[in-house]
Amino acid sequence: MERNLKNVLVISFGFLLLFTAYGGLQSLQSSLHSEEGLGVASLSVIYAALIFSSMFLPPILIKKLGCKWTISGSMCCYIAFSLGNFYASWYTLIPTSVILGLGGAPLWSAKCTYLTVAGNSYAEKAGKIGKDIINQYFGVFFLIFQSSGVWGNLISSLILGQSSNKVEISEEDLPCCGAYDCMTSDATNTTGSAGPSKSLIYTLLGIYTASGVLAVLLIVIFLDQNKSDQAETEREITKTPSFWSTFLATFQQLKDKRQCLLIPLTMYSGFEQGFLAGDYTKTYVTCALGIHYVGFVMICFAATDSLCSLLFGKISQFTGRKLLFAVGLYGVLFEKHREAAFANYRLWESVGFVIAFGYSTFLQVYIKLYILLAVLVVSVVTYGVVEYIEAKSSSGTPTTPTAEKEKVGSLTQETHM
Fold first, then answer.
1. Within the chain, what is the greatest distance between any pair of CA atoms?
2. Could you give the angle at the alpha carbon of 380 between the alpha carbons of 376 and 382, nearest 5°?
3. Shortest CA distance to 78 belongs to which of 93, 91, 97?
4. Minimal CA–CA distance to 191: which of 107, 115, 123, 286?
5. Considering only CA atoms, which of 367, 190, 192, 194 is closest in space to residue 294?
6. Of 148, 175, 206, 289, which one has the greatest count of Cβ atoms within 10 A?
7. What are the average pLDDT values for consecutive 10-residue runs of the chain, which has 417 residues?
């Protein structure tokens, strides 16, 4: 147990270091590289590459390299993105964004496989239930990992807050921030004379890069390559369907009208997060308050997000799934086709990201807000139809509170995986 727990902690702190860097850098992309929309274009490319990567790379790399080296190699892809930010241009940032996107899917798949294999291995030796041990391991992982949103943004605000070039926006320029942003106003140009100095930006990027390198070293030096569990790892990979079978199953799942009705809600998740990273941080925070406040604002968002996740998770145990109103419903609605259902979730959410980042440089913020509201309204309506279909089909088949709790408990892990 001590050896397995050590490996879980190594992975957890490795991801903490890696996403401390990436999370903070993602929040700053639209502000640091606002010229010609380079920052949001790089984010769009990341998620487009992630769609491509998730289709076939994970099983191939894990089978060839094993979980340990897949994790460490994929982490290097994130470091490449940090390095690309040192001399940001279309010729450096876009290629490194592609590299990061390609490494994202294998990274998370290898992590999930490693924790699953380790949990099952220990449970078998200790005579315990594998699912219970796996849940414990994932609980430890996300307890540590979720704090990365705080540390990465805190570092950015503390570093960029030392800038001597802080300029308070005038009352005349203030209307150029927010919903009716002035696309060509100097008020939104945070990398010019009013922005942080190059030395501060390089210092921040150096810290983020070092954090990523430490993550790789932590995995390479301290994570065990469980040769004794290689057979079980092979079984886990064998369970993973091939590229074409996954591709076909993903679109065959669209024959289910409930799946189609959930597409707007899934895309809204991408639209909303894309707006937060690409527009909100730039036009509401950087423009009105300064780039050094981006980290503080995102810390508040991350903390509130975590607290609400915990709160609504507890509430859902007593009220059922309807208050969740989130993507976790995929694990409940499509129990017989979970893999295809979650593939659809990843696909359509990533499409939402790509679209949101794609039109970010062409439309004003108030138009984007109308788009978000329209997608949200459609999502509410289509989700209501799904619940109506579910209620109609399950009438006469009562669900006990215990069964409902079990469903809610299982979907929490599914959404993270």
1. 70
2. 115
3. 97
4. 286
5. 190
6. 148
7. 84 95 88 83 89 80 88 95 92 94 89 87 81 84 85 89 70 78 49 67 94 96 73 56 61 77 87 85 84 87 74 60 52 59 74 84 87 92 85 62 43 41
CA dihedral 336, 338, 341, 347 (to 10 degrees): -160
Cα–Cα distance, 53 to 240 (Å, whole number)? 15
> How is residue 279 written in tokens?
């527009």
> What length is written for the chain?
417
CB atoms within 10 A of CB 61: 24
CA angle 54, 56, 59 (to 5 degrees): 100
CA distance linking residue 393 with residue 387, whole number of Å = 10
Distance CA(91)–CA(87), nearest Å, equals: 9
Say what the pTM is. Answer: 0.75
| Cβ within 8 Å of residue 310, ≥6 positions away | none
- 79 neighbors 216 (Cβ within 8 angstroms): yes
d(CA 71, CA 69): 5
Please report where in the chains the tokens 């702190």 appear, as a residue.
Answer: 13
Between CA 260 and CA 265 the distance in angstroms is 10
The separation between the first and the last C-alpha atoms of the chain, rounded to the nearest angstrom, is 23
Both tokens of 83, joined, read 């390095």
Q: Which amino acid is at 150?
A: V
DSSP state of 242: P
Contact 335, 249 (CB under 8 A): no
CA atoms 195, 199, 201, 207: torsion sign: negative
> How far apart, in Å, are the Cα atoms of 333 and each of 121, 208, 345, 411?
30, 40, 13, 10
CA distance to 117, 145, 178, 195, per residue, from 170 (Å): 58, 40, 14, 15
Helix (H) or strand (E) segment spanning residue 4 = helix 2-32
